[in-house]
Amino acid sequence: MLALIRHGQTDWNFAGRLQGRTDIPLNAVGRAQARAAASAYAGGYWEAVVSSPLGRARETAEILADALDLPITGTYDELLEQEYGEAEGISWSEVATHWPDRVIPGKEPDHEVSARGMRGLHRIAADHEGRHVLVVAHGGFIRQTLAAISGHEPRHYPRFENLSSSVVQYANAAWHVRSIGGVPYLEAAVAIERRAAEAERAA
Description:
InterPro entries: His_Pase_superF_clade-1, His_PPase_superfam, PG/BPGM_mutase_AS, PGM_Phosphatase. This is Phosphatase PhoE. By secondary structure, the protein is an alpha/beta fold. It has one domain (2-202): Phosphoglycerate mutase-like (Rossmann fold, 3-Layer(aba) Sandwich), CATH 3.40.50. It has seven helices and eight strands. The strands form two sheets. A six-stranded mixed sheet has the order 3-2-4-1-5-6, with helices on both faces. The protein has a two-stranded antiparallel sheet with strand order 7-8. Strand 2 (48-51), helix 3 (55-68) and strand 3 (72-75) form a beta-alpha-beta unit. Helix 2 packs parallel to helix 3 (55-68) and helix 5 (110-128) packs across helix 6. It is globular. It starts with a strand and ends with a helix.
């Protein structure tokens, strides 16, 4: 069982700027969010913490591990955030203005993000031999990876809040989504499918 956790807030998060691979650190709010979130993972069920190599994810992982007295057992390049090329550092509204078709120069293709996300899940599972692991990563990465498992379009997934958690489980030779942003999967899937239907009607 893996809990995919979005890192704490950064100044760019607060300002609504697209981060991607730009290595922006946590701010004071982000550190407080991580400390506050730790209690949700207490009780002995979770056994280790891993993260993306980017500083905002690593520091979030360190805060959680320290609060829960868990080992940090590695960083995984597969957990890096999607690269947004020329759009990094600007707001989503500016992205819509400059690239209304979302064809952004230098952007990592969605299918490549989901493919490395799946590789990352398998590698973490193999390295931890069935243990339950907290995986600190990034909102865009988590969305693409969950969508690859569930079969939904990533754009219909919700926006993930800082420190939100989505749980996946490997069982019967396949990955399964158990929750999305703290919401049980079946309930979240209804909302995702509703958004997909609304988008289709609006097209």
